[in-house]
Amino acid sequence: MKILVTGSAGHLGEALVRTLRARKIAAVGIDLLPSPFTDVVGSIVDRATVASSMRGVTAVLHAATLHKPHVASHARQAFVDVNVTGTLNLLEEAVAQRVDAFIYTSTTSSFGDALTPPAGAAAAWITEDVIPIPKNIYGVTKVAAEDLCQLFHRNHALPCLVLRTSRFFPEEDDVLERRDAFHEENLKVNELLYRRVDIEDVVSAHLCALDKVGTLGFGRYIISATTPFTRADAAELGRDAAAVLGRHVPEFPSVYAARGWTMLPTLDRVYDNGRARRLLGWQPRYDFRSALAAVAAGGDWRSPLTREVGAKGYHR
After folding, report:
1. Which of 18, 172, 212, 269 could join 124 in a cystine, given CB atoms 3.0 to 4.6 angstroms apart?
2. What is the DSSP letter of 111?
3. CA-CA distances (angstroms) from residue 237 to 93, 122, 195, 223, 291?
4. Is residue 308's pLDDT more than 80?
5. pLDDT value, residue 126
6. In a domain, 308, yes or no
């Protein structure tokens, strides 16, 4: 087995290459930026670079992308070039090289306006059946790339799975009001309830997808930490999230109080990872309960892999 990992200098790309190499699986990393985990310094927008990188490859883990924060710094055309044309280049070369598996890293941000119900309304319960309503060029291009993956499965029988990951970056929140209102760790642990995932669990989801893609053929899956909430909690989460959390995790108030932490007053959405756990056989290890136990014991709530990869910021 030889796996091509795109975006190998980024958070997820590095984590994937680290894990594959630790398992003695041949991995070729491609990225615009040089790094210890990048074998090919080049762009997926360049077809010749993609073609040469794909030789001898049996599977592709496509994590390279322009991200949501780049909306403020990059032209819309750049998003089309990288997220759409780059993905198309990879898919076409994967077919040409008879690659066995293609795993595309997408984002829960693709759901867009479906994630924000009116104030006081029930939290949106987000499953793969929710129709995306992208609200920026990032979301539009990620959905377009997902559709390209489906097209190549249908027309070329390329086994291809799409993983819609929730946020896993260690950087500060991109919304100033949230940064000002919460201690950074407090906010991220809160997010494990509904919109965050540890990078080690993201990596394990990709490996599960590689195992299942031949059987499943095509599918889209939400990759987020397992929430303690149920769909029946949605209405109350939109009014008093702390009360709901107290019923499901009664130890949380004392742990939070000891650290001066606070719970978010309401939640606007909850990502449900049930389909990924059922169909991919994915078993995420890091969630709100595990983080709370680690914090209570004076430990680090993040996985060892998250700490090893560290914070990188975003590509220029």
Report:
1. 269
2. G
3. 46, 7, 14, 21, 20
4. yes
5. 97
6. no
